Amino acid sequence: MQITWKFKSFNELTIDDLYSLMALRQEVFIVEQACPYLDADGKDQQSHHLAGYDVDGNLVAYLRLVAPGVSYKEMSFGRIVTADKIRGEGVGKQLMDEGIRQGEMLYGKQPNRISAQSYLIHFYSAFGFQLHFKENVQYPDKWCWSCIFEWTIIILPVSKWLKVKSNNPLI
Questions:
Q1: How many CB atoms lie within 10 A of CB 103?
Q2: Taking burial as the number of CB atoms within 10 A of a residue's CB, which of 64, 110, 160, 166 is the most buried?
Q3: pLDDT confidence band for 119 (50 / 70 / 90)
Q4: Alpha-carbon distances of 153 from 43, 71, 137, rounded to whole Å
């Protein structure tokens, strides 16, 4: 699938850009995954935003590249999302490749930390991310019963950029 990528700082986003990315994030994370949380967490302003558009100009893929020191000591990817209508067409892989490329251009070759649902370990390991540690996040089941799942913290090691094969059995 042909995707047009746009990479902008928060201050470069137009009102329409911001509306589209917030709508896609809420559509997937809050509505589709039935997990209410405060999406406007104050990190967008300190981040760069990678948006992927289809041939009709619709936002279909997005990730937030958070500056080092905001979420973690490393730079980090957050809010990684693809629209339901294009899943299975390789756009998620394109999004990760472009995100890694943009991260290298912005911050150089350094570790990149993400937080993701455990079922995505194999997807992210294809890009050199390794399981760093596990953490269980408990949500109050009285308001978010479907949100009780295990999260994992995954980090992209420097060896990915140095083209060194990892000995991690998860990869």
A1: 22
A2: 64
A3: confident
A4: 18, 12, 11
Contacts of 70 (CB under 8 A, 6+ apart): 43, 46, 47, 76
pLDDT tens per residue, range 150-168: 444 555 544 444 343 444 4
pLDDT at 34: 80
Is the model's pTM score more than 0.85? no
By the 8 A CB rule, do 42 and 89 touch? no
Residues 147, 99: Cα–Cα separation, whole Å: 26
Structure tokens given for 79: 């809010």
Q: Which helix (H) or strand (E) holds 112?
A: strand 112-117
DSSP state, residue 42: S
Q: What is the Cα–Cα distance from 81 to 52, expressed in whole angstroms?
A: 10
